[in-house]
Design brief:
alpha/beta; 41% helix; binds 4'-deoxy-4'-aminopyridoxal-5'-phosphate; Aspartate Aminotransferase, domain 1; globular; 380 residues; Aspartate Aminotransferase, domain 2; binds glutamine; seven-stranded mixed beta sheet; single chain; aminotransferase; 13 strands; pyridoxal phosphate binding; 2 domains
Length: 380
Amino acid sequence: IETKLPKVGTTIFTVMSQLAAEHKAVNLGQGFPDFDGPPALREALARAMAEGRNQYAPMTGVPALREAIARKTERLYGCKVNADTEVTVTSGATEALFAAIAAIVRTGDEVIVLDPCYDSYEPAIELNGGRAVHVALDPSDFSPDWQRIADAVTPKTRMILVNSPHNPCGAVFDAADLDALAALARKHDLFVLSDEVYEHIVFDGALHQSVLRHKELAERSFVVSSFGKTYHCTGWKVGYCIAPRALSAEFRKVHQYLTFCTFTPAQWALAEAIETDPQHYLDLPAFYQAKRDRFRDLLAGSKFRLLPVGGAYFQVADYSALSQADDLAFCEWLVKEGGVAAIPISAFYENPPAGQRLVRFCFAKNDATLEQAAARLKAL
Ligand code: PMP
Ligand code: GLN
């Protein structure tokens, strides 16, 4: 058969989690917490099911959740969004990314992605007849080089996909990045797809630079987020997309036939959590900053060189003092012989820089897990 994604294999997250299970390794590979979200949230989910909220939700999402998202967005980013026409609840950020791409990308269109980038972007673009044009982030600090990005624009460029805080590198945009993005999008009339799933995980007092803070960008952007990250419930797969009315209308045409709607009880529970306990997401930066610092302290004196982490819950580490193997081979060795699973950074690149020796560790883990992993990593 003629296949649609000939270059695509099984996602690295699945590959590494399977290896971790097989070798009984500490799994710092696939990004997910090994602890649960707030007890009140889980109780609200059970209550929603007990109260009979078990049938299809409205196609666009439970109104109470869309309203809670709109209020939170205005409070945090000063951006008024209409809960009825501009917010759509999705089955995780993955669905939102796919639906935004499917709504906008036509056959032959180009979409700029910044490498390293999350692995679902390119297949979604290709399945919709588009082509991902990869531009590397600056390898010294993983910041965007706006001149290089501008040079990659062609008459076929339809959209640019950005991600801050960044998976896998932990880099975050500053306000100047938003201005540069806005200038580029204005000049070439581009749509923006902004993956902000780690919006509440930004460190050292920095502000999350949501494109929703920038009026001009908000007018041409699809902004995607995920409750999996914010409420430690990656398995619930609830996310959302915020976009101006006309873009949301197109987005919903795809969403209604992709999934139609998302698990109803979780939507009621999340609506309640956002409204009754905003402190949960306001405390998230400090919560994860403590984990970042703990993990880095535990690895002091190891052979890994730790790169700076400005946001998200991943630590990128250079292992060149330990091995000259490529990063996939190193991760396979590490999970089998070292007892720790990590993710090779080359998995996020079209063309990984030659000689780059970087792996990603997820630090969204209990202290005991971080301690056990660090002890194994220090012994190498
Ligand atoms: N984008 C990025 C950058 C992510 O890290 C993830 C989760 N790993 C997703 C999207 C997908 O989020 P969800 O699990 O809500 O589909
Ligand atoms: N987003 C998670 C990560 O980066 C993985 C999600 C998945 O396994 N699809 O590790």
